[in-house]
């Protein structure tokens, strides 16, 4: 019957879920389309230009790095995610050559120099953003008001700035922050669209609910306890984007569920501390980076109790 | 007194994976496969000691004649499964251990003459010792896959009180339907076998656990249970279809909430689990006085006509695949067992062994191993709540002691982690390597 036929063998299991790394990254890109679209809607074609530049640079840098490291280049969408996430944290008016440098740094240094996907310590997009904040402090904090396709933008400076005085009542401020009709980075303004994208990833099982919930919850509780406007702190700045898309990065967050909660609470505490007591208006980027650095430590000490292992104290 | 209780419960677990079922043969009645021209009887078909051959080349043997046995406690004899002549010996690579195993080849005389079987018995007349003796002589091993000699499992140490017996009808691996069909078509024998187990262990409770994807089997067993008026306290439990629900330790956790201690056995928490096909074999051995020489095997996947076949042990895989119309299309891989824990065979002359419940024919898919992205899916999948990716990281750099400290021995290689892994890391393979290295090191000391 099969005398001439070749029989192959392979290790088990002989079934695979089919959910590959590149599919996961692709889904993240899909979920980011809404916040990205909001960026274009509010800030016009310039925002689109920043995003395209950032993504193209990221993919190109990954290709070149892989060639230099003599590794196979696999188009797994992870560079697209990094490039897009970086762009979403940038001011829409940033000169494009700065975008190129930041994106190349994200992939070339923060990711590939550490060994590529799976080996990087810091979130590449945030690492790149931190690098840019250090190199181009003025340009990185020049915020413009939404000027894309709408006229009735709330007329206040970037909401988290110290000099921020908003002339409108609270409810319209919340509404503006929720819809995204405020000044800020390209993708951080519309809480609604980030939420939709984030919920999509939650429903698809791509991200774990623990990190966004614990992170946003910590910020809300802490700002409320400190007598601040908790709703404002949740809606303003990069918290939503950070909680759903940055802090949930698999590689740079803990692997256990318990560790993830510790990570997220720590990030929340740091964010509030930087926002209220630090020298910068926004603390999402640096608090996530700081907790990224602690992640290996968390993973070392927070373990899962295996089935059948009695806990201390149990007889 | 008839104390048949029913309970229909929906138990969940936060660990494990949801698999596509692909139970192609769920509605196919069991078909008796034609007698093979030759059978290959491996002398080591249980997890304990190998058998010594009792016959030599040229000897005539009858169907059901014992042809291999061992004096060790943890062992099970093997029998001729057709009548004919012992025409030679061969060596096989045991699929579970990877070791070479001696096997006897019996060429059929086409007559299928049986050894004289003793008269049928009723259970009331039998002592526990007599039951255990008959189970051992019949060569029964756990048919869920582990192939642990059944009489050993039924002889717990005196200081261990067994309060619960679980009949395992989960069959949680995709494709396999042999236990499902056995429950539907030999339900009476299965319950009779369960009653024998109950008599031996006298537990307080007997659970019959079936996954909710086998509603017809649940209904059928429920009706039979009501009509058979067995002694004892029986409870039906419907479990969520999730892999690996049918693994002993998972099952005990889900039904009773108990955890078998690390390195321990179910009897350490007062539980004994038996598979439905094993129960049927126990009935046949104890009451019908038949040795264990045939079993139901699901032949499925890329064959022209997938079937549930009642097969004499030792039948070459080739015969069964031919019986099902041959390999379909491009398929080029033959897996003995289910898609999750089954093992690819390189030789179509490999025989059906006692623990074989399925033959899956498939097209092999080349996989490219990527880097771990620490997504944690393997942690969520692991029924033993181990950290598979950490085990892989240690194993890759040869830190086998770290693997040991991370409880690698508790992994029973269900493959749920590798199924879920988006980076396509052959996690089970790395774990197997680490385990065998640890065994080698322990042997050196």
- Biggest sheet, spatial arrangement of strands of chain B: 1-14-13-17-15-16
Give the largest chain-chain interface (CB within 8 Å): A-B, 42 and 63 residues
Main beta sheet of chain B: strand number and arrangement?
A: 6 strands, mixed
Q: Please report the total strand number of chain B as a whole number.
A: 17
Q: What would you give as the CATH superfamily of the largest domain in chain B? A: NADH-ubiquinone oxidoreductase 51kDa subunit
Structural class of chain B: alpha/beta
User: What is the CATH T-level topology of chain A?
Assistant: Ammonium transporter fold
Could you please describe the fold and organization of this structure?
The complex is a heterodimer of chains A (315) and B (445). Chain A is an all-alpha fold and 315 residues long. In chain A, 58% of the residues lie in helices and 0% in strands. Chain A has helices at 21-43, 45-68, 78-88, 96-111, 124-135, 137-140, 170-179, 191-203, 210-225, 230-235, 239-246, 257-277, 284-301. In chain A, helix 1 (21-43) packs parallel to helix 3 (78-88) and helix 12 packs antiparallel against helix 13. Chain B is an alpha/beta fold and 445 residues long. Chain B folds into 2 domains: 1-295, NADH-ubiquinone oxidoreductase 51kDa subunit (Rossmann fold); 377-444, no CATH class. Chain B is built from 13 helices and 17 strands. In chain B, the strands form 4 sheets. In chain B, strands 1-14-13-17-15-16 form a 6-stranded mixed beta sheet, with helices on both faces. Chain B has a 4-stranded antiparallel beta sheet with strand order 2-8-7-4, with no helix packed on it. Chain B has a 4-stranded parallel beta sheet with strand order 11-10-9-12, with helices on both faces. Chain B starts with 29 loop residues before the first strand and ends with a helix. Classes of the chains: A mainly alpha (315), B alpha/beta (445). At the A-B interface, helix 1 of A face helix 8, strand 15, strand 16 and helix 12 of B.
């Amino acid at each position: 019957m099969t005398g001439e036929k070749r029989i192959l063998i392979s290790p088990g299991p002989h079934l695979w879920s089919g959910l590959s790394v590149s599919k996961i990254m692709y889904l993240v890109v899909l979920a980011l389309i809404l916040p990205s679209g909001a960026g274009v809607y509010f800030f016009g074609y310039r925002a689109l230009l920043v995003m395209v530049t950032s993504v193209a640079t990221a993919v190109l840098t990954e290709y070149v790095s892989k060639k230099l490291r003599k590794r196979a280049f696999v188009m797994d969408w992870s560079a697209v995610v990094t490039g897009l996430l970086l762009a979403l944290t940038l001011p829409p008016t940033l000169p494009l050559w700065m975008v190129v440098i930041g994106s190349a740094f994200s992939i070339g240094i923060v990711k590939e120099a550490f060994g590529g996907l799976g080996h990087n310590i810091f979130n590449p997009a945030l690492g790149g953003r931190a690098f840019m904040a250090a190199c181009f402090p003025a340009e990185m904090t020049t915020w413009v008001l939404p000027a894309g396709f709408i006229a009735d933008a709330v007329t206040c400076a970037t909401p988290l700035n110290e000099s921020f005085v908003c002339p409108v009542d609270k409810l319209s401020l919340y509404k503006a922050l929720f819809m995204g009709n405020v000044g800020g980075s390209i993708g951080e303004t519309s809480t609604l669209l980030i939420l939709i994208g984030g919920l999509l990833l939650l429903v698809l099982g791509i991200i774990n609910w623990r990190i966004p919930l614990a992170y946003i919850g910590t910020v809300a509780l802490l700002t409320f306890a400190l007598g601040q406007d908790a709703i404002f702190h949740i809606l303003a700045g990069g918290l939503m984007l950070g909680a759903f898309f940055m802090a949930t990065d698999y590689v740079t967050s803990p692997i256990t569920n318990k560790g993830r909660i510790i990570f997220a609470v720590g990030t929340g505490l740091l964010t509030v501390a930087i926002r209220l007591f630090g020298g910068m208006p926004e603390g999402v980027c640096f608090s996530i980076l700081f907790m990224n650095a602690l992640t290996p430590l968390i993973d070392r000490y927070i373990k899962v109790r295996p089935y059948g292992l009695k806990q201390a104290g149990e007889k | 007194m008839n104390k048949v209780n029913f309970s229909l419960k929906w138990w969940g677990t936060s660990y494990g994976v949801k698999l596509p079922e692909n139970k192609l043969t769920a509605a196919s009645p069991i078909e008796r496969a034609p007698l093979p021209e030759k059978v290959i009887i491996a002398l080591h078909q249980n997890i304990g000691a190998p058998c010594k051959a009792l016959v030599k080349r040229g000897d005539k043997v009858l169907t059901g004649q014992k042809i291999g046995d061992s004096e060790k406690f943890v062992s099970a004899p093997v029998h001729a499964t057709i009548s004919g002549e012992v025409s030679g010996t061969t060596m096989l690579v045991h699929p579970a251990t990877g070791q070479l195993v001696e096997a006897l080849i019996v060429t059929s005389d086409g007559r299928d003459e049986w050894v004289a079987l003793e008269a049928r018995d009723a259970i009331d007349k039998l002592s526990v010792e007599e039951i255990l003796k008959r189970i051992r002589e019949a060569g029964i091993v756990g048919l869920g896959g582990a192939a642990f000699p059944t009489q050993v499992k039924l002889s717990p140490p005196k200081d261990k009180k067994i309060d619960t017996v679980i009949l395992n009808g989960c069959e949680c691996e995709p494709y396999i339907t042999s236990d499902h069909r056995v429950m539907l078509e030999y339900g009476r024998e299965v319950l009779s076998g369960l009653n024998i187990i109950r008599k031996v262990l006298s537990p307080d409770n007997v659970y019959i656990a079936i996954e909710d994807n086998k509603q017809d089997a649940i209904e059928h067993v429920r009706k039979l249970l009501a009509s058979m008026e067995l002694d004892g306290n029986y409870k039906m439990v419907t479990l969520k279809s999730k892999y690996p629900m049918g693994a002993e330790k998972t099952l005990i956790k889900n039904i009773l909430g108990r955890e078998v201690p690390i390195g321990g056995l179910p009897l350490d928490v007062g539980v004994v689990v038996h598979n439905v096909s094993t129960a049927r074999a126990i009935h046949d051995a104890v009451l019908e006085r038949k040795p264990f020489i045939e079993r139901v095997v699901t032949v499925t996947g890329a064959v022209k006509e997938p079937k549930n076949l009642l097969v004499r042990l030792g039948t070459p895989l080739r015969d069964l695949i031919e019986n099902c119309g041959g390999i379909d299309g491009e398929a080029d891989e033959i897996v003995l067992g289910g898609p999750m824990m089954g093992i690819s065979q390189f030789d179509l002359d490999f025989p059906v062994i006692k623990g074989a419940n399925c033959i899956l024919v498939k097209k092999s898919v080349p996989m490219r191993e990527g880097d771990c992205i620490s997504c944690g899916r393997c942690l969520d999948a692991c029924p033993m709540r181990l950290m598979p990716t950490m085990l892989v990281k240690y194993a890759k750099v040869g830190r086998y002691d770290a693997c040991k400290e991370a409880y690698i021995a508790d992994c029973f290689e269900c493959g749920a982690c590798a199924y879920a892994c988006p980076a396509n890391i052959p996690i089970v393979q790395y774990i197997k390597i680490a385990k065998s290295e640890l065994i080698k090191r322990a042997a050196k000391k």
